[in-house]
Amino acid sequence: MFDMPTLTPGQYSLVYNMFSFTLASMLAAFAFFTLGRNRVAPKYRLSLLVSALVVGIAAYHYFRIFSSWEGAFTLVDGLYQSSGEPFNDAYRYVDWLLTVPLLLVELVLVLSLARDKSGPLLTKLVIAATAMIALGYPGEILNDTSMFSERGLWGLLSTIPFVYILYVLWGELGGAMGTQPPRVAVLFRNIRLLLVATWGFYPIAYMIPFFGLSGAGAEVALQVGYSIADVLAKAAYGVMIYAIARAKTDADGWSLESRSYAAASSGDGITAPATVNA
Amino acid sequence: MFDMPTLTPGQYSLVYNMFSFTLASMLAAFAFFTLGRNRVAPKYRLSLLVSALVVGIAAYHYFRIFSSWEGAFTLVDGLYQSSGEPFNDAYRYVDWLLTVPLLLVELVLVLSLARDKSGPLLTKLVIAATAMIALGYPGEILNDTSMFSERGLWGLLSTIPFVYILYVLWGELGGAMGTQPPRVAVLFRNIRLLLVATWGFYPIAYMIPFFGLSGAGAEVALQVGYSIADVLAKAAYGVMIYAIARAKTDADGWSLESRSYAAASSGDGITAPATVNA
Questions:
Q1: Across the interface, do B21 and A94 touch by the CB < 8 Å criterion?
Q2: B264 inside 8 A of chain A by CB
Q3: CA angle at residue A200 from A194 to A204, to 5 degrees?
């Protein structure tokens, strides 16, 4: 943790600029989800608000990670060498502890299932997500290089709740797609794939020491990989949540123009005063 | 106060990351309470606004505490040693002086009792909360290690308003639950338990010197304990206030969709102009 490898200016700058790119993306996503949440029907806005919290929390942590990266190196003879200050990678775990459960919350909320269904689903997924992160951390801070080590054991334990989350997403939540509009079902399948593809990066990163990879190249690849995975798993994922909310808003017959439901297509009998919607 | 114990990198980082976690949680809670307050009926929004103030004030203080912690240590020979700069724990008392009365205010406000009842309740609770913090501080800055000392005396004096607050929460405010919807009564019981469980940590922390505990382990346990207690007592407490506000909003028949009261289900006869709700 303390001894960062010596980096060339190109390597150092690549990570530096990826962190900056991620921070800018998270801040822009925060602005979009907060300012744009009134474009969907009221019942989907809580989901967009949670999306905003996720990217907001990530922006805070990338700001800290960025500063920590700067502090961990000094430029000596044209090379970036360890300054002796630690690069605090633990910010990532603190971030995940808060954001990973919230990512599942926004997905369940946007589907607006019946309360007796969404309540237990949320409880199960939040507990599993928290356990997944909490069980990974004790292994992360060990420097074992064999898969059959304490690090490997914690990684394995952390994988159990991860598999459980996938099981819920494909089983129980997948089954609920039958009652959703077709366009929502397609978007749900896509966001679920995005989730697996991006979340899948983190266990691979966790196993890097097992592959015998270390040094400057591995460190740079890891930080760049984390940045891309975070932008996709949080900002792009949130945009897909927004797309689902829009599709459901349309299906419900809620009009952005009149900010109310069209009399014909809405089942709950709420009509806007003196407004006719298509 | 000036001589911080020497910490291992693991101990230093644990506290550092807990402070960062708390700061991120408070900022996220601030965003949630401000952006989400229109999701409840207008009469409960002041309570959510007060929740936002509490976590906003706490975020400010944790930002300061974080910087003070960084400044109080220097990394020498792989260990974090006292830099000579003080770690300013007094930020906590300043924070509590502002936030503890407000935490009681948000609880009374969300119950939306009759004005002749809530007015005197607020006055009593705010005075008691302020007295509790103000009486604890003179003892906090003493280094007495015996319970029968000046520190012990101030602690005892501070306990009197604390017991009075519990008396009001269980007696007068508990009695008012008879007129609340059943779901609100359950949530009120839960939030009252959360309050006692988290506020109970502070007198225990105050008594640490009496148990003969000092040095690195005690300092780390204290700071981690404060962080967890603060997140629960302010952010999680605020989320429960939000849950109470939502439950009361539903019971009042206020609709998030039409932003008005349903004519049939609301007892106070407020109807939206020319809008028919199911």
A1: yes
A2: no
A3: 150
Query: CB B39 to CB A45 under 8 A?
Result: yes
d(CA A144, CA A147): 8
Q: What is the DSSP string of A111-148?
A: HT--HHHHHHHHHHHHHHHHHHHHHHHHHHTS---SSS
Residue B248 and residue B45: Cα distance in Å, rounded? 12
| B151 token code pair | 């520190």
In chain B, where does DSSP find H-type helix? 9-35, 45-71, 90-111, 115-140, 150-170, 172-175, 182-199, 201-206, 215-230, 237-252
Of A134, A17, A25, the residue nearest A69 (C-alpha): A17
Chain B touched by A43 (CB under 8 Å): yes
- ipTM of this complex prediction, to 2 decimal places: 0.87
Q: What does the pLDDT profile of chain B (278 residues) look like in tens digits?
A: 457 899 998 899 999 999 999 999 999 999 999 999 999 999 999 999 999 999 999 999 999 999 999 999 998 988 999 998 989 888 999 999 999 999 999 999 999 988 888 999 999 999 999 999 999 999 888 877 788 888 899 999 999 999 999 999 998 888 888 888 999 999 999 999 999 999 999 988 888 888 888 789 889 999 999 999 999 999 999 999 999 999 999 999 998 888 889 864 444 444 444 343 33
Q: Chain B within 8 Å of A115 (Cβ-Cβ)?
A: no
**Does the beta carbon of B76 lie under 8 angstroms from any beta carbon of chain A?**
no
User: Which residues is A79 bridged to in the sheet?
Assistant: A76
Between the alpha carbon of residue B269 and those of residues A206, B248, B272, the distances in Å are 60, 16, 10
Instruction: Identify the three-state secondary structure at position B74.
Output: strand
- Residues of chain B numbered 187-246 and touching chain A (CB < 8 Å): none
Which tokens hold the place of A201?
């990066």
Residue A156 CA: distances (Å) to CA of A49, A147, A152, A162, B87: 33, 10, 6, 10, 40
**What is the value of pTM for the model shown?**
0.90
